[in-house]
Design goal:
globular, 0% strand
């Protein structure tokens, strides 16, 4: 019985050390930085309501997905 979800494996050219360095530079958690790194690599907008991650995305030149009640 399947879950209905399919994995889409993507090779990550980044290293944990690079992610940690960027997280420190933007003052976000490593967890948040992984979302930022994926958005950068895939040239995709980032969807988040987290203020620090939004600031980091803007500083990194990553577009933010607009919409929702808070915007």
């Amino acid at each position: 019985v399947g879950s209905g979800f399919a994995a889409d494996p993507v090779e990550c050219p980044c290293t944990l050390g690079a992610v940690v360095d960027i997280a420190l530079a933007y003052q976000v958690t490593v967890y948040d930085e992984t979302f930022l790194e994926v958005a950068q690599r895939m040239r995709a907008p980032l969807a988040t309501l987290d203020d620090s991650l939004r600031r980091a995305a803007l500083a990194a030149g990553v577009a933010l997905l607009q919409g929702g009640e808070g915007d």
